[in-house]
Amino acid sequence: MTSANPTISDRSPDAAEQPSALAEISQETLALTRRLFLQLQRRPSTLVAGVLQPLIWLVLFGALFAKAPAGLLPGGISYGRFLGAGVIVFTAFSAALNAGLPVMFDREFGFLNRLLVAPLRSRSSIVLASVLYITSLSLVQSLAIMATAALLGYGWPGGVGLLLVLITLLLLVFAVTALSLGLAFALPGHIELIAVIFVANLPLLFASTALAPLSFMPSWLGWLASLNPLTFAIEPIRAAYAGQFSLTAVVLEAPYGDLTAGTCLMVLAGLAAGLFLLIRPLLDRKLT
Amino acid sequence: MIELHQLSKRYTAAKGASVPALNDLSLQVPAGSLYGLLGPNGAGKTTALRILCTLLAPDSGTVRVAGLDGLADPRGVRRLLGYVAQDVAIDKILTGRELLQLQGDLYHLPRRQRDRRIAELIELMGMGDWIDRRCGSYSGGMRRRLDLAAGLLHSPQVLVLDEPTVGLDIESRAAIWQVLRQLRDGGTTVLLSSHYLEEVDALADHLAIIESGTVIAEGAPSSLKAALGGDRLTLRVREFSDASEAARVQALLRDCPGVRQVVVNQAQGYSLNLVIENDGVVEQLRQQLATADLPVFALAQSRPSLDDVYLQATGRTLMDAELAVAGSRDPKAERKASM
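YS: structure for the whole thing
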């Protein structure tokens, strides 16, 4: 340490200029997002594992039914092609489900307190940074899986189809991220959060149309699958892969009625909005 | 500069019992002073500082910093304060510089000003050799310096430090003391909590003794000591006495002329702490002991110290107070409250 220090008490020109709220919120949000990406860059195992796991699903599960009788699946497509949409959605879903973990660790290690004593313009910046980070991470992982699926010969949705796929994934990621962040503030510690993630993950996959069409399921499971948010993301994407881009086309014949791609997207959007509203009080309690 | 008025706070512990942490605590920190909060672990120092820094809402009471109401305008208060917490929370994956950059952005410093300020603080804290290494590799002293730098980044008018030198080596401690003195000399108001007597004695120009969540004595260290008056004697008849012998000696000396007080100090092997009027009393006491056929292992005389101020105010030494609370805290509940 040096002893000469003429500058230690120089005051920041606090009142001199008041930057706009938007500028301040974007400064703090970008700084928090940058931190999450620096962590990812230096500890890329989450990214690698997040791509590797669905990749294994795609290759092994796709091969499992390779010799199934032709024409077994609706539309006569191969199982690999059928599975593609499910695995893409599962990739985005798993990544988003982990959104709460960094926040939970910040709570446990006391880093969150460092953020809370700072004069943040809006504490939503903390949540916003997580949403930005997880959204880009899960979209990158999903695109990696889509590229691999294309290489395996399971197809690629062109132009409008790609847009439809991305929008669907985005809505699902928002909803699941909201849920996970809410849990990160509601549960007592990371052990509990990981337990919830672990328990929620596979059953939600199995009780959806990711691995098998509704027509294969007993009616009780068919009902469950038709209420599962994952199904609402899988079916429009599957339709897009099949070259069908119309929002008014029926993508799922659910036991309670036919669902169009547009309805699926609306349900996902409603779910995301609803969940963010629902967890709001939780965030407020911990963040104000 | 800082006014805490009748703060009360209770924590809910396990099984629904509620534990008082603060009990009508009031405190006034003058602008430009270096103010020490002295008290044993568990006295409520951290709770008071967390309330001041807007991390915790009090059950009742008010907080004012530079005229701003901390409960009505927490963001205004946050902008004025730099807070250096007790358990330093840093991100192991980031480098020290990246952490400071993040901190600067959270305080909305313009980029050029931020980077210039970071460079100044690296120089001031002597962090140049390791600031671009990841925080995970830092020693305790390095972390504490980095955290102090983070607290100073936005040049706050008020710096609040919770036990800033706990567990530090002597060199790091001296370095931090030096910075705190420089800050005070530069006009910054510094409020620190400590359970080290010598730290508060060496640094603070004002202090408050906190016990069981309330302030029991307050003033400048020198005037608190002067107000006590008299001289202090520490007497040991044997290297290790037992309780009954200590009580016997206490009874023998208590009523001697010129002796104001005799206290048995359990934490120091049942030695006796005496307060006497003047030097002449010492010789009388020696004679008394000789007459009663008691040996003298050690007899030390001193002016009143801060420890005596503490003893006078609380009826026990700081060390005894520490020992008393050591087993009675609930670290799990405290940690939960801080999440």
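YS: worth flagging: The longest strand of chain A covers residues 250-254.
IM: good catch. Also The interface with chain B takes residues 1-3, 5, 7-12, 14, 19, 24, 27-28, 30-32, 34-35, 38-39, 42-43, 107-121, 188 of chain A (CB under 8 Å).
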